[in-house]
Design a protein that fits this description.
This protein is mainly alpha-helical and about 375 residues long. It contains 11 helices and 2 strands, in the order H-H-H-H-H-H-H-E-E-H-H-H-H. Helix 3 packs parallel to helix 5.
Length: about 375
Amino acid sequence: MIEAALYILTGITLYAGMHQLLTGTRATAPRYPLSLGVMYLLLAGFALTSALTYQAHNFTTLLPAGKLAITLGILLWIALIWFVAFRTAFRPLLLLDVLTAAWIIFLVRNYLSVNSLLYADHTSMTAALPGGGALVQPAISSWWIALELTMLASLSYALYASYRLYQAGSKQAALAMGAGLMVLLLAGISDHLVNSGITHIVYLAPFGFAAFLLVNSLYPRLVAFLNRGAKNDPVVYNLTYNPQQATFHSDVADLKIPLPADRLAAGEDSTPPVPQRPEAGNGDTPARDTTITEPTVPDIPPAQNRAADPAPAPGQTDNPDQETLNTISDNLIDIAVYATMLMNRVKRGNAEPGTLEMLCRKVRTRAIKTRRLANQVSRPGRHRDQ
């Protein structure tokens, strides 16, 4: 029965590993599927060799299969701690190096040991097989006790890293990883009881690793599926001039209001366009963004040409015209709107480099033009002071 379950697990994990590797080879794919694919393939070999140990009828076939199973299990533990380190962005390098070095020492010891890392070398394995063919539990090696302590230390680090991820705000991802680690911990406790002779069930380590990998591979797909069906409430930006609102000290949420229900029913586009000002002159036309309309502002002469402008006549008023003041206030509103759109995209996780660069360029353009207008406004005052 256990052999059949392990063979089924081998097939499932082999397919999952190939699928994750193919997903990770895409140009835009992250490294997350690649690491999962490697762990799936290691688990497939671990489950297959574990099934071979249950089918062994003599120690000639039992010991090689057992040593290979332990080797793949150790490689799985090394891959697990580094997978958790990069998944949670919590990488204490000294601790990770110590754990990795300990697992490598166990790997070498398992290869050099006569009876594998599980059984003591001084134990006569042939005496453990009576004439009836029933296998008697041999003595457990002291190296295996050290391996279990290293396993506990690795699980403790992984659980703490999941807790750090939970504290950082990724609560659902941390809970999913923590649930998989708890299943793996329970499987390790069960295997320890089997080695101690307290219980007489099968080893559950392959199924514990399978639970951990399945949870961490299915969770991102489940989140993507749920987010695909969810619809966020559309918002429209309030571009009405309000000196108390469009300031550096105003809250970002004050610059947007819910879209009215009648506009939702009419099926209007929820992308907040910036209105054009008919009284303005020629302006910059956006090259890549089709959802944001660039407001136009009058062309301002370069700084080197402004020195040649004639001074105002003695009878000319020193107050700037109202159109220039309106343009300055409109530019300030545009800067606040583009900055708000930039912050909202970052908050939603929609931080596409091209869109962010375009919004930053718009803010920079508006700031430069507003500064030029401010210089024009302040010029009559400087002549008057002279």
